[in-house]
Design goal:
Length: 447
């Protein structure tokens, strides 16, 4: 494996300064020109697709088919943002005043390993599109992907190369960056880390965009299509080996269909394939058919095991999975639990692994109360044929995004972000792009 040089801590302020100097030139370009330049990412991603997919697989163990999908949704994000940037950043006029949306200056972007290409671009892309420069610290578990991202941006025709700087390092590098002379911090990661960033940003009152943890609930009502919904939610809980902020992490099922739902989830769990997502010496197509790779690192395995142990000690029943697989790597199987309750850590803390607790509920009102009894509020879903009832349930869920007969983010152009301790601000929309701007009101008085 190649060595990757860590950025010296003493170099961080130098890179922030270089970004600030480059921002002056990048920010003077029109929105249309910036959109044209950044839309070149579509072709560049295509040209570097094999390198990007391989880097994602090597960095965090994502199966090839899932890595290809991450590349696709990132490309779609670029197209959509570039197509709407001029409209979203256009001047507004209110009561004879002009409202401008201008760059803030330098954005610090700290991204996770879960979706190292896509989530990085949900912050880097709008920050640059709005005319800011970026100092980017990819996760220490996804450095290969981060380096390729920066090379691709800097290779764009017309791009101001120094407007995107990269820091290679760990927690200390992120802390030093947040405490530096930046104007906004965009971070995706744990709620604990988000709170630390907010505290460190207080001295300079940085703008913040924080996409933090989730403990996302799915409410399955008695008229839902049990077989399809149980399979769908089981796969949601195991996507990316459960390392997804908005994966289904708690499922509440109305009593009349509870047993059938559990049986359906168990059947689906047995269908998932688990394996090494990347072997450059094997030309077979088996690696395109792996559903789940390993957990990213030992710390993640330890967290899953701790929460499962606590749940079992407090009365939970493990119906399948529950133990690390006996092979090289941090592989963990789909795990289904019943007899769970709110006093278990698993129902209050995010496991970030392929773990699905399933609880019976008496009514949808009971399900809403159970779903809301957590400090998190990222996403949720409700599954029913009764759309009017589903809308009422959705209105009562204390989250940022609700799916009706779906679970996860909405389409491109809709805001993404959480309520309560799941975050501050939004991305992936006009709201997200404007979050990287200073809104300035210009009024003309009568002399």
């Amino acid at each position: 494996m190649e060595d990757i040089e860590e950025t010296s801590l003493s170099e961080i302020n130098t890179r922030i300064t270089a970004a600030r100097e480059a921002q002056v030139h990048w920010g003077l370009k029109s929105v249309g020109e910036r959109a044209r330049i950044l839309n070149g990412l579509v072709e560049s991603f295509h040209q570097h697709s094999e390198d990007l997919v391989a880097a994602i697989m090597l960095d965090m163990g994502k199966p090839r088919c899932k890595s290809i999908f991450e590349l696709k949704i990132t490309t779609d994000l670029v197209r959509h943002t570039a197509a709407h940037a001029e409209e979203w950043l256009a001047q507004d006029f209110v009561a004879g005043s002009t409202i401008l949306h201008q760059p803030l200056g330098v954005a610090a972007v700290i991204s996770p390993w879960t979706f190292p290409l896509y989530i990085s671009c949900t912050a880097i892309l709008p920050a640059l599109m709005a005319g800011n420069a970026v100092v980017y610290k990819p996760s220490e578990y996804a450095i290969r992907t981060g380096l390729i991202i920066v090379d691709i941006f800097r290779g764009l025709d017309g791009f101001e190369a120094d407007a995107l700087q990269i820091l290679v390092g760990g927690k200390n590098h992120g802390q030093r960056l947040v405490e530096g002379n930046v104007d906004i911090v965009a971070f995706t990661g744990s709620t604990a880390a988000g709170k630390d960033i907010m505290a460190r940003s207080s001295a300079r009152l940085h703008r913040l965009v924080l996409e933090l943890g989730g403990l996302d609930a799915a409410l399955v009502l008695r008229d839902a299509e049990v077989e399809n919904v149980s399979a769908w939610l089981l796969r949601s809980s195991c996507y990316n080996s459960g390392q997804v902020c908005c994966a289904a992490k708690r499922v509440f099922v109305e009593e009349p269909i509870y047993d059938a739902f559990v049986a359906g989830a168990l059947r689906e769990a047995q269908k998932l394939t688990i394996g090494d997502p990347y072997n450059p010496n094997d030309d077979s197509d088996i690696y395109d058919n792996v559903d789940m790779g390993p957990l990213v690192a030992a710390f993640q395995l330890q967290k899953v095991e701790e929460l499962l142990k606590d749940a079992v000690n407090k009365g939970a029943h493990v119906l399948t999975g529950g133990k690390r697989l006996p092979r090289c790597g941090y592989f963990f199987p789909p795990t289904i639990l019943t007899e769970v309750h709110g006093g278990m850590r698993l129902m209050q803390e995010e496991p970030f692994g392929p773990v699905l607790p399933i609880s019976p509920i008496r009514s949808w009102e009971d399900g809403v109360a159970r779903a809301n009894e957590t400090r998190f509020g990222l996403a949720a879903s409700v599954w029913t044929r009764d759309l009017e009832l589903a809308k009422e349930v959705a209105a009562r869920l204390e989250v940022g995004v609700v799916g009706i007969n779906s679970h996860g983010p909405g389409p491109h152009g809709t805001p993404w972000g959480g309520a309560k301790e799941s975050g501050v601000g939004r991305v992936n929309s006009r709201d997200g792009l404007l979050g990287f701007t200073n809104t300035k009101v210009v009024t003309i008085g009568n002399l």
